Amino acid sequence: MADFSEKIAPDGGLTLELSGQLTICHIGQFDERLRELDGQVNQIDISDIGPIDTVGAWLIFRTAQINDAQIVGNNSEAERLIDELSENPVDDVAPSFRQNPANHIFAEIGESVMSVFKTMLNFTSFVGQVIVTVFTVFLHPSRLRINAIIQRFDMVGVRALAIVGLMSFLIGIVVAQQGAVQLRQFGAEVFTVNLVGRLTFRELGVLMSAIMIAGRSGSSFAAQIGTMKITEEIDAMRVIGVSPIEALVLPRVFATVIMMPLVGFYACLMSIIGAGLLTWIVLDMPPVTFTDRIREVTPITDLYIAMIKAPVFGAIIALAGCFQGMQVKNNAEEVGFRTTAAVVQAIFLVIVLDAFFAIFFTEIGW
Amino acid sequence: MNNKPHDGDAILRVEGLNNSFGSQVIHDNLDLKLRRGEILGVVGGSGTGKSVLMRSIIGLQKATHGNIHIFDNHVFGEDAPSSDQRSNIGRVNYIDSEIRRKWGVLFQGGALFSTLTVAENIQVPLREYYPHFSQCLLEEIAAYKVRLSGLPSNAAAKYPSELSGGMKKRAGLARALALDPELLFLDEPTAGLDPIGAAQFDNLIRELQTALGLSVFLITHDLDTLYAICDRIAVLADKHVVAIGTIDELLAYDHPWINEYFLGPRGRAANNAGK
Known about the structure:
The complex is a heterodimer.
Chain A: E1 3-8, E2 14-22, H1 30-36, E3 41-45, E4 49-52, H2 54-67, E5 70-72, H3 76-87, H4 101-139, H5 146-157, H6 161-184, H7 192-230, H8 233-240, H9 244-282, H10 287-297, H11 300-327, H12 332-363
Helix pairs in contact in A: 2-3, 4-9, 5-9, 6-7, 6-9, 7-9, 7-10, 7-11, 7-12, 9-11, 11-12
Chain B: E1 10-21, E2 24-35, E3 39-44, H1 50-57, E4 65-70, E5 73-76, H2 97-100, E6 103-106, H3 118-129, H4 135-148, H5 165-176, E7 183-187, H6 195-212, E8 215-219, H7 223-229, E9 232-237, E10 240-245, H8 247-252, H9 256-263, H10 265-274
Parallel strand pairs in B: 3-8, 3-9, 6-7, 7-8
Antiparallel strand pairs in B: 1-2, 1-4, 4-5, 9-10
């Protein structure tokens, strides 16, 4: 263990006699004890110390500097390290940046507000860029990356079928079951079919699959593009002359816009099948009757509503994912943060737009 | 443990190391010895397993078999105490932390933690091994190491993404030096640096080696580095160390790869510059 003893010289100054190992694993409380020293240290005697490393040398050097003390004694190893320090002294250690807490709150609020505005501005310009690119691609159809789009079909659509199907099937069962329980109080169990049919096509089928696709694909878009941003792949593309919007964003947006109605329709069907199964078991309604009733009570406009909403939701999910991916900079933590932001933003926008759609379609009498 | 004569001045001994991935053999019966206080350059063509050798030594990758001794501790081998399977569950690395704290590693890209500042990066190993150190002392040590590695002191508060390639290497070196290691592993420290930066980095390694009494295991492709700072050079070829010695000894050695390496146009240029 590193240790020291104090000796008072005739003139009142202190001499520190250091002993023991001054290496990083033997410092222990040595640093605190040196800091707590009071009195003027005139000399530091290093002749008795054992092995020393840079930390030990730093402690001696610091104590000597603060007290303006002389280092005495013979110890070649220590002297070499200390000389090394005194040749290029460390600048004053900058104290950690501290702020008045009140100011800090205002600064935080201000920064958040600014970042919201900036994000909105960036998102608008990003959407603008995508629209411009869509037009250029329509003018030069050979630049459309069919392979990339088809590959995304698989990732966004086909691979989501299992989970979306299972989820929708269960939701169909739950809605039918809860509806049957409530409607039974009025002796109107038979209207469970109306409830399920209309609710599924108008709202649940597409909305739930949008949420699932946002979680599955929106997040992966953000993470993929974000990682490519960090590894400078996107910069490399720009330099080569490939537009990242054209090569990365458009295939994802197209694939999601095309896949969303298909997945949404499939989700509706699975919900109806789930509900049909439940009504068959619980309400003793044979599947044939159930199918007839569904066709009777669900107007075709409900399906139109679903098929109009789905591509819009798909576009929002893909745009939010790609936009957040493109915003990544600096470090790995940002990728995680942006991925979360992509999903939250996509689901939020989907639900807001869904509310608008609901009011709009009711107003036009669908 | 081992029936070879005890070699007191070797800080690192690798004996009969075999490494293979599937059917591809990387190392076959590789022997290497790093003497205390020397800078050993490790060279070899791409794919000869220089990095695999380093990763095996520092315990990131288990060799197929062989023996590795570091600081007279048997860290890997059939009868090594610490490579015992049962005690490895849940451990970061099968090599004991007492040994690990005595070495520092500089990875090729610097491998700085991107969410921490340079000073915080340097403090990571310190906090891990010496949790009782005060924040004040940690800051001081970090500032000192930043200065030691030749970075301007304002670099301490910067994030890795704000540093240039050369500064990242220096920051990585500062982190490798955080625990005052006896043994330093450097994986291509001058790769990607401009010649001036590379020469400065070479000098820095040499200065630190003398000032701190380090032993250095240095993987490099840089002939200038070999001529400027390496005491001895180990050449990896044909799955083992074909030759080890000073440059003059290697120049006299007859092996096609070594001849081409040192007597090719770049080798001759570096030789002239070194003289």
